[in-house]
Write a structure and sequence with these properties.
By secondary structure, the chain is of the alpha/beta class. The protein has a 5-stranded parallel beta sheet with strand order 3-2-1-4-5. The two termini are 17 Å apart.
Length: 202
């Protein structure tokens, strides 16, 4: 039996697409590809999720790539422009599950300074009963410690919780710790799984 649901946020509840911002700031896809693969890389951004401030993380990068300083700063200043809306279908599905009476929680790899802004922009996030933010805890999924923090906040055992994430290593880590899991691809597939598990009736 599922007693609570633990949602990832980025690309499960809210879209996170750096390209959406940098397509507005760079002349073509080739330039966007170069910027996101060679300058503001996923590895560089991961430090933000671990709690490093934007300012601290940007300084050495701007020293290496001074011509891109403004674009590097945009990663922080215009971060919400990388979240261009809710994941299709998830707002209504979130409401359905909420009405079914299950407690809903969040577990996200996200910079500390961003989550409050995102919660203000997307009221659905304010309805989560608890949210564990990696930037606050200085540890990221798929590390065990952040899952332990989440179970402590929810006051539930892992086997009582359905953990939903779009990143397979995170899903695998949750499964290894005893969570019920769903590898998120689309709201329609998640809804079908929630029906099969008895969370929703039809």
């Amino acid at each position: 039996m599922v007693k609570a649901i633990l949602f990832d946020i980025g690309n499960v509840l809210v879209r996170w697409e750096p390209r959406h911002l940098f397509r507005q700031l760079l002349p073509n896809e080739t330039a966007v590809d170069h910027f996101l693969s060679e300058i503001c890389t996923p590895e560089w951004h991961f430090a933000h999720d671990l709690g490093v401030s934007f300012e601290e993380n940007a300084a050495p990068l701007k020293a290496r790539f001074p011509a891109y300083a403004g674009l590097i700063d945009a990663w922080s200043v215009r971060y919400l422009d990388m979240t261009p809306g809710e994941v299709p279908g998830m707002a209504s599905l979130f409401g359905e599950v909420e009405q079914a009476g299950l407690p809903l929680h969040g577990l996200t790899n996200m910079p500390s300074s961003i989550f409050p802004k995102l919660r203000a922009a997307y009221p659905m996030l304010a309805r989560l009963r608890s949210v564990v933010v990696s930037g606050d805890e200085k540890v990221c999924k798929p590390e065990r410690r952040i899952f332990d923090i989440a179970t402590e906040r929810m006051n539930l055992a892992p086997q009582d919780v359905l953990f939903i994430d779009d990143t397979l290593p995170n899903v695998e880590a949750g499964a290894a710790l005893g969570f019920q899991v769903h590898h998120f691809c689309a709201a329609t597939a998640l809804r079908a799984e929630l029906v099969s598990r008895g969370v929703l009736t039809s």
